[in-house]
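Field reference: sequence -> structure
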Amino acid sequence: MKSTSRKLRVFSMLKACDLSCSRKKASGDWPGSSVETVAKPITSSKPIKILHIITGLDVGGAEMMLARLIENIDRNRFRCEVLSLAPPGDVARRIEGAGVNVHSLMMERRFFGVKTCQKLRSLVTEIAPDVVQGWMYHGNCAAWLASRMMPKQPPLFFNIRQCLYDLSREKPLTRLVIYIGARLSSSTVGIVYNSQLSRRQHEALGYEATKSIILPNGFDVNEFKPFKGARERLRREIGLKSDAVLVGIVGRFHPMKDYYNFILAASRVLRQCDAYFVMVGRGLQRSNAQLNAWLHSLDLNDRVFLLGERTDMPSLYPALDLFVSSSNSEAFPNVVGEAMASAVPCVVTNVGDSAALVGETGKIVPPADADALARGILSLLNLSEEKRRALGAAARKRIREYFAIHTVVRRYEFLYEEVLHGQN
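Structure field:
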């Protein structure tokens, strides 16, 4: 009974504070800062221990959001530990660099055996968290299991960072885990989504609707910003003149990114504009046979540069004249927010909350439509350099006002404190 009343109190507090962030039309303002006047720190005698359990720590949107949360959370009030199911990736090093312990179950395959469960129990017992926060589908299920391994079950949050336009695209095991997560979701005190569309889709699959919380991704405008010399440096690296027009796209090689649509659009842009394109992300390299076949079929090998996964994104975004997201499925794309914070205008497909993120600072086009994507790209490339810079400045201002990392982190802090202490 006590647990139930606590959950109801947290839910009503979230609604009262407008943490659900029901947005207005895409071109309007995101009511992102309203909680600033409400989420006052709650005095506590000792830091709240939070165990974040995530599927893996390779570079990705959810992983980077976790890293930013950890880097910006108040260390006087919170102590974080991170558990990765998979072997640690590049983001693990960033989190460790922030002074936070990263543990791993070293799971090569995404299912729990006896030894894995024993290791999880040992870690949870040692850490003794006050709050357990899951991230992504497998991480959420593992977080549920971890919370059940403690004598006094700590409050449990799920965190879902994905839209599901077509469940059949997911691997069979992932589909199973998604449905298991739905069954387990009633035992959480909250399910954090980073987009309204993701919330609606998952509630339709059976995720507990009364637990839904919308917290958009947050961006560090001190990390992502205009970078003097970035333009010349990248063009020198790939062998282009300093005045070459450069359009970029960032993300892992995955069907939902719809890179073929981007490549088709690039071929059509080149009929009317002298431009070059860079593709950055895991799997976007010359060893990718499928990607190279697409480029070869459209005779784009000398116009598209494949840079693979990079760790210097803050200095790469500002080198671009234009950023593109061609995805056919997204929730709330980190890469678009990072480009906007870097003062780069964006052309995005109308999926997830991409349109709400960009607002009137860029172009929004239908997904899976290469002609529309090409027209959107051309409409911005045909602007004067001064007008493109003005759009980029407006994009950065929008991120600063509505999606700054410190605002989003304060909301997470409020969630964790309220669930333990209630409202003062």
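Note: The chain has a mean pLDDT of 90.
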